[in-house]
Amino acid sequence: MKYLTYLYVTLFSVVCSAQTAENAFAYRKGSIYSIMIGHRSQEFESEIEKAFDEMPVPDRYFDHSLGKKVFYTTEKKLKPKDIDDHLGFVINNHSDVKEMNEYDALLQKQYVASRMIAKWFERKRTTGLSSMQLIQDRGYSNASEVDKRIASLNVRKEALLRDAGEELIGSTFVLVNDINYIDRSRGSSVVGGIISAASQTASIVAGGKTTDSDLGKLISSYKGFNVKIKTYLYQLVWDKEASSLYYNSIYTEVPDEAKKTAFENNRGEFSLIYLGMQESSGSTTSFMGIKESEPEKMVRKACQRALDENVANLQKNFDVFKIKVPLLNVSPITCEIGLKEGITAKSRYEVLEVIEDERGHIEYKRVGVIKPVADKIWDNRFMAVEEGAENAILGYTTFEKVSGGDFYSGMLIREIK
Predict the structure, then answer these.
(1) CA distance 184 to 43
(2) Rounded mean pLDDT, 309-338
(3) Facing residues of 225 across strands?
(4) SS3 for 348?
């Protein structure tokens, strides 16, 4: 069993490439592969899967998907054993842990860790050739920025990109989402399924005879739809051992059969660490603003709201998963985050200045603290505008200074636990 306390110091950095108010900050974000646990026997399963497939990765993260997004279980509900005991558990083929929960086993069976690393290096399966291009693209605002950093820091390109890779690759996460339908309906008006309701509604819209009473009964057939999601957070392990193995034994930009084979032989050496779980409240989602002829949007809205709730809470609970977001303006102080990120009137954020040493290594210095203005918190939740939610059209949240000196646009903010 391995523990990764030492990783918390360096992982999940958001790096700025400029430190003046005149220049927009290009910052490095974390990367996410989000998957769903499917339950074939569950009511509305196909509708839930379709909704999940349409969901983008959470804001402020790069999409690091590996293609397949839904994995099935024959059980109606997965029940991981003693999940809390797996805090700090590293998944790989050589673990000395005798018991793994179903999620651990799934990720290991799919070789998710090694595949995520291979994607970072755009490794070609047929040739074994790797590249640093994706790291460059995600680490810097443009290609010329790399040349500027090399010139100002007097370092080699390989060293600069490797340092960027340490931050970017280590800030890669997997979200395993177990989604369960909850029937909160009451009375005999609940019928069949959402697709059935959609078909009937479409018929009515097309000119079928109906009364207001009929339409009311039809709408009630899917108004009870709701979901509860358990989201399990894993982090890709990119420590000295993993980095050295890839760069020294696998990475090659020219054909090399030995290095090509080395990757296949060492897949089990790359691993994920389980961080923790968050469960959505399952509270009823308002379906205001959704047309009766589009019930599938109710499924999407319920799923999206529940998943966003989990992501926001995971960000609050795990420092390595927290996002850093640039200030939009400083007079007034504004930032493009809101209710979707879990902001409340009690939230507090530290304002960070980026400090870069002579080799381009990044540190963050707190220069102040801000808090949101209670009546100016942006409601940026999914479909908030359509439902006419208060503050849905603001476009940003306004903050006020609690402490600190002068701020400038582009400085980063991070929530204080």
Answers:
(1) 13
(2) 94
(3) 183
(4) coil
Angle at which helices 296-317 and 194-205 pack, to 10 degrees?
Answer: 130
Q: What phi and psi values does residue 276 have, to the nearest 5 degrees?
A: 170, 180
Predicted local distance difference test score (pLDDT) of residue 215: 42
- The pLDDT, as a whole number, for residue 376 is 97
CA distance 326 to 138: 16
102-109 vs 112-120: helix crossing angle, rounded to 10: 50
Residue range 356-375, pLDDT digits in tens: 777 667 778 899 999 999 99
User: How many of the other CB atoms lie within 10 Å of CB of 395?
Assistant: 12
Rounded CA-CA distance 415/325 in Å is: 10
Neighbours of 270 (CB within 10 A): 25
Q: Residue 37 in contact with residue 78, Cβ under 8 Å?
A: yes
Round to whole Å and give the CA distance between 292 and 212: 13
- The residue written with tokens 């998963």 in the block is 321
Taking the C-alpha atoms of residue 29 and residue 167, their distance in angstroms, rounded to an integer, is 9
Query: What is the end-to-end Cα distance of the chain in Å, rounded?
Result: 28
Is 169 in contact with 29 (CB distance < 8 Å)?
no
CA-to-CA distance for 182 and 179, rounded, in angstroms?
10
DSSP per position, 82-139: TGGGGTTPEESTT---S---HHHHHHHHTTHHHHHHHHHTT--TTT----SHHHHHHH
Mean pLDDT rounded to a whole number for the chain: 79
- How many Cβ atoms sit within 10 Å of the Cβ of residue 266? 16
Task: Write out pLDDT tens, residues 126-138.
Answer: 999 999 999 999 9
Pair of tokens at residue 354 = 């980026």
Alpha carbon distance 243, 240 (integer Å)? 5
* Confidence (pLDDT) at 22: 31
DSSP symbol at 21: T
pLDDT in tens, 156-182: 888 888 888 888 999 999 999 999 887
Cis-peptide, bond into residue 326, ω within 30° of zero: no
Distance CA 327, CA 376 (A): 15
What tokens appear for 87 in the block? 């805090």
